[in-house]
Write a structure and sequence with these properties.
With 125 residues, the chain is of the alpha+beta class. The protein has a single domain, classed as Nuclear Transport Factor 2, Chain: A. It contains 3 helices and 7 strands; from the N terminus they run ααββαβββββ. A hairpin with a 2-residue loop joins strand 3 and strand 4. The radius of gyration is 14 Å and the shape is globular.
């Protein structure tokens, strides 16, 4: 595994651990200022909108299925299996795939630049 692939896998792991800890400021450092998130039925939004979303309790996993690095750009396909509880709300079990595009910033650190999120309600067994 290359250093760049490891750095992207570490970024995904840090995103999850920071999200679980409620460390929103850390999560924001992991995304480019011009990041675009695309979600089913919700259109797209950027970093400012992401930062304004209510935070809640998060548990679960993010499995990095593959990473491809191409110079200062890379993509990763992940599978999320999470439970999110919004403030004052009921837990919501979610799962699905994401496709992230990453790029190195001027300091040489990888950041999420684009995110296509196919996560939805988890099917009940």
């Amino acid at each position: 595994m290359s250093n760049d692939e490891k750095a992207i896998r570490d970024l995904v792991a840090l995103w999850m651990s920071a999200s679980k800890a409620g460390a929103a400021a850390t999560v924001l450092t992991l995304m480019a200022d011009d990041v675009i998130f695309m979600v089913p039925g919700g259109g797209s939004f950027g970093k400012k909108e992401f930062a304004a979303m209510p935070s809640g309790a998060l548990s679960g996993t993010a499995e990095v299925l593959e990473v491809q690095v191409h110079g200062d750009w890379a993509w990763a396909r992940n599978f999320l299996d999470i439970t999110f509880t919004p403030p004052g709300g009921q837990p919501c079990a979610l799962s699905g795939y994401t496709l992230g595009i990453y790029r190195k910033n001027v300091e040489g650190k990888w950041q999420l630049a684009r995110d296509a999120n196919l996560v939805g309600p988890k099917a009940k067994a």
